[in-house]
Amino acid sequence: MEKTDTGSHAGMAGVVRPAGVAGSPGVIENQQGSPRGRGVVAGLVYVFEQVMPDPFVLSLGLTFVVIVLAAWLAPHGTLPVILTSWYEGTFHILGFALQMILILATGYAIADAPIVQRGLRALASRVTSPARAALLVFPVVGVAAWLNWGLGLIVGALLSREIARRVKVDFAWLVAGSYSAWSVCNSGLSSSIALSQASHGNALNLVEKATGHVVPLADTVFAPFVFIPTVLVVVVMTAIFIRMHPKAEHVIAFSEPHEAGAHADEGDPHARAAGTSSVAARMERSMLGTLLLLALGIGYLAMTWREKGFELDINTTILIFLLAGLALQRTPIAYADAIRRAARQTGSMLLQYPVYGGIMGIMTGTGLAPAIAKTFVAVATPATLALWSYLSSLIITLLIPSAGGHWAVQGPFVLPAALALHASVAHTAMGVAMAENVSNMLQPFWAVPVVAIAGIRIQRVMGYTAVTFAVSLVIYAAALWLIP
């Protein structure tokens, strides 16, 4: 049984070496119980296990790096400005952090619904080999992530567990595949950059503030330069992951945890309410509370969309997923139990968001982010600005993993450049979002809830997703360069 790390995973499951593999030629068992096989992918897995620290520790290291860079390169990198910017950034992000956690929690509640769970088990039951696992995981998770990034994270982790219970596959490879499929989320309907530019009056709608116009989703999410590479990443990475699966003697399979009480709270969540006829229990089982919230939410959406037209932003996305989860879970107590289970996966996010908020504050307050972005923009032309926006975003994403927070930092500098050069505003904005997709494969922030639910070390997963980083880097860059 693999030991667990705070912030990396929740200890819900572990990995074991199949019988007969220990001591096989070409396999070296390290202290974490992972194989050191031959080849590029095995080498990447080994390097990430040995070099990459816990995500929270990594965020602290990035904070130190940003402080040094700000003091060295930023125009306002004095100690008082750094300290003030760090403090303001740490607490300014809390509202956005809660929105992101709610997206994750409401997505979890949908995936946790009995009817969805039965569907995931039915899908998993059809898998008989690693190749079929990849052919199932990539399209299912890709579509779910395109619809909502929180739903994609949860479906990917839970579907990976269900498949791994039935088929002998390398569990880190499978979880990495689901996370790779999830990477397209910033090109989908829950993209905070695309949604904010399409939402009238949104605080992050920098295009509207500068031009008086919004950018509809037809020009971003549904545009060929975004949609085509999104599909290509899913298709190409499916084929690559099939070929990347370790040989049988190198596989580290999924294993259910054996700790006492590990599943003590995973029984029927309705058992307490069903076992009594008290007034409180009847209220918990009643659908009246669910119907009330559904009526309020549906009524608000119908009224707003009738008056202002259909539009999605972060809050309406959360509301829609709240309503969908309530409808699927049916009773208030069932939904409350699902959210409580989801809350166990958000601890590391609560811990890391303030740290990254501090990093964002330092980069913004000291002028470090503009210095980085302007270096790229200075050499851009109308035809190449979107590509330079994309390349600079790759760097900034590693320091600010939230797409919304990232846009708040980079948008104020790449957008004026697009207007001044008469370049495509949609291409420039989505270049930032596409780079988020790519850099997330090396930035562990969003992998934390996946590995927490799946129950595996994040380092082994990131060794595989490094390949996704390299491939998707080329695909998105080519799309920005070649597709109008």
From TrEMBL:
Stored InterPro entries: SCFA_transpt_AtoE
Chain ranges passing through the membrane: 56-74, 86-111, 131-159, 221-242, 287-305, 317-338, 350-373, 379-401, 413-435, 465-483
Keywords attached to this entry: Membrane, Transmembrane, Transmembrane helix
One Pfam assignment: SCFA_trans
Protein known as: TIGR00366 family protein
